[in-house]
């Protein structure tokens, strides 16, 4: 215990005088269309809608001028029907991820280019209303992705704007694929470990890209944009596919944390 306190005392001057880094936090709402095929539950395509809420945070590394990191957390709900409207598919999903990127800045032109790795985990659980033996299914994967983006910032008389495009492409990871002949309760009885596999561009393709416009006014900053997600994975006998197009509306907050400053 004494050694730990001694180390803290040595590091405290460094920590107290460390550079204060600006944080950027974005709260957003999503709404859009969903198109999906789940051959484990049904051979038909289901079309519907989805809503979501998410949080996104950006922060520079205090020790590296041109490196920063980003984290995201999204929760979404979906409802879709087959073409004859005879069956409904409900979905509830969670997507989260973290990435680090290097950025190049041209401040005189307001341009920034970023490239880096990104790690994403996704779970989308589905429930089919009229299926007794196999009413449940899910998309589940952890993927290492490549992330890239470009942004352009420009100003008005009392406002400023930032137009940004980001793209995420899966490279390699692990995913879950059910066997067509297994019922949902058989999967939970120990067979699940046989359904987890190595996933890459050859059998699991995930693409997410978005374009957003941040509008900074004297007292608030808002975001509007659009997002497209495409997921395609499976085996030679089953191919799962989900596509989403969402409109995004959000609020942008910027703040700095000063650990050495006392509360008032």
Helices, by number, come to 2
The SSE order reads HEEEEEEEHEEEE
Largest sheet: 10 strands, antiparallel, barrel
Q: Which percent range describes the beta-strand content?
A: over 45%
Characterize the structure shown:
The chain has 264 residues and is mainly beta. Helices cover 7% and strands 65% of the residues. Strands 1-2-3-4-5-6-7-9-10-11 form a 10-stranded antiparallel beta barrel. A hairpin with a 4-residue loop joins strand 9 and strand 10 (221-234). 24% of the residues are buried.
Which terms summarize this structure?
264 residues; disordered N terminus; 10-stranded antiparallel barrel; mainly beta; 11 strands; elongated; single chain
Helix and strand topology:
Layout: H1 2-16, E1 22-37, E2 45-60, E3 67-81, E4 88-106, E5 111-128, E6 136-155, E7 160-176, H2 184-187, E8 196-200, E9 204-216, E10 221-234, E11 239-256
Antiparallel strand pairs: 1-2, 1-11, 2-3, 3-4, 4-5, 5-6, 6-7, 7-8, 7-9, 9-10, 10-11
Q: Can you give me a brief rundown of this structure?
A:
With 264 residues, the chain is mostly beta strands. The chain is built from two helices and eleven strands, in the order αβββββββαββββ. It is elongated, with a radius of gyration of 22 Å.
């Amino acid at each position: 215990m004494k050694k730990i306190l001694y180390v803290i005392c040595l590091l405290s001057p460094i920590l107290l005088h460390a550079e204060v880094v600006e944080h950027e936090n974005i709260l957003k709402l999503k709404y859009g269309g969903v198109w999906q095929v789940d051959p484990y539950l049904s051979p038909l395509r289901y079309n519907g809608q989805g809503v979501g809420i998410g949080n996104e945070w950006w922060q520079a590394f205090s020790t590296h001028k041109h490196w920063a990191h980003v984290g995201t957390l999204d929760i979404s709900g979906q409802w879709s029907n087959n073409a004859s409207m005879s069956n409904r598919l409900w979905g509830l999903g969670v997507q989260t991820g973290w990435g680090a990127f290097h950025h190049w800045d041209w401040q005189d032109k307001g341009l920034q280019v970023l490239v880096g790795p990104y790690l994403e985990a996704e779970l989308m659980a589905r429930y089919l209303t009229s299926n007794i033996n196999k009413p449940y299914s899910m998309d589940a994967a952890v993927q290492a992705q490549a992330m890239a983006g470009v942004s352009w910032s420009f100003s008005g008389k009392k406002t400023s704007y930032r137009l940004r495009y980001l793209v995420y492409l899966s490279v390699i990871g692990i995913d879950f694929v059910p066997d067509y002949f297994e019922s949902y309760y058989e999967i939970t009885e120990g067979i699940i470990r046989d359904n987890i596999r190595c996933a890459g561009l050859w059998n699991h393709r995930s693409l997410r890209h978005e374009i957003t416009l941040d509008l900074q006014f004297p007292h608030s900053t808002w975001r509007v944009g659009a997002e497209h997600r495409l997921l395609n994975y499976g085996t030679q006998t089953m191919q799962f596919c989900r596509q989403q197009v969402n409109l995004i509306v959000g609020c942008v907050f910027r703040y700095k944390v000063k650990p050495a400053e006392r509360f008032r």
